[in-house]
Fold this sequence. Notes:
alpha+beta
Amino acid sequence: MVVFNTNWRPAxxxxxxxxxxxxxxxGIAFGLAMKLPVSLITHVLITLxxxxxxxxxxxxxxxxxxxxxxxxxxxxAFVIHWGAIREIVPMGDVxxxxxxSDVITDLKFSGLPLPxxxxxxxxxxxxxxxxxxxxxxxxxxxxxxxxxxxxxxxPADVEGFVxxxxxxxxxxPTQVVPPARLMPAIMHWAFWGDHLAHLLVLFAxxxxxxxxxxxxxRYPALPAQLVLHFDAAGSPDRFGPPxxxxxxxxxxxxxxxxxxxxxxxxxxxxxxxxxxxAWGGSAMVQLFFLIAMITVAFNV
Length: 300
């Protein structure tokens, strides 16, 4: 088996530079949030910081994966190593190898538009679906053509790869290798492809974000002492500082996290309906807390 590596440095440089730019953005946004008076702008800045942090985590994973792309080749199979994923392509399924530059005009790519970041799927009218596992400019890529899926790759030694591929292709396989895509167990979870589950979870998250938004928006108008409870006669009997307005949102978020993890465990055992009900119930809980938040924030 012959191993062909890639020239990963340009792609990794782009990933690191993007992460540094986002870190600077987080510093600016969070610094402004701490410096400016508490208001809805504070909520926007903190939310923006959290979104950028999530993007950095995603970029970090893919930067490491791009630095470890390699292609293994023998008479029976062509194997793509990309991060934790192993793509096994039987040599018996390969029809030909072409230069990506030959089909560049009609080739569509739906991945992140960063230089040398060719991660994701694309499409070509004549070839069909193309899976990109490469970290070089498109003009330096090759496409492995098979009946079911095409693979865009970027070995550093293009000529050496083409020659090695030609020799093994002409020799023919000695055994049948089934196609496979090997991934960690967590990547096989059905949850990642369940749009209804995503909708329910995102709805609950959106309601919780709205909870915090109401608190931040109302905070500047709150008095020094906030009414937190009323007795049986309707008179206020418990007070607290204005920061207590965020109490319902914080409690609701904690409940959401607990509910999400429990429902995910139920979902992983195949009990989808129970998980849907749990996630839907979590959204209702967020709604109830939103009503409580409005009651506390506007009862001044």
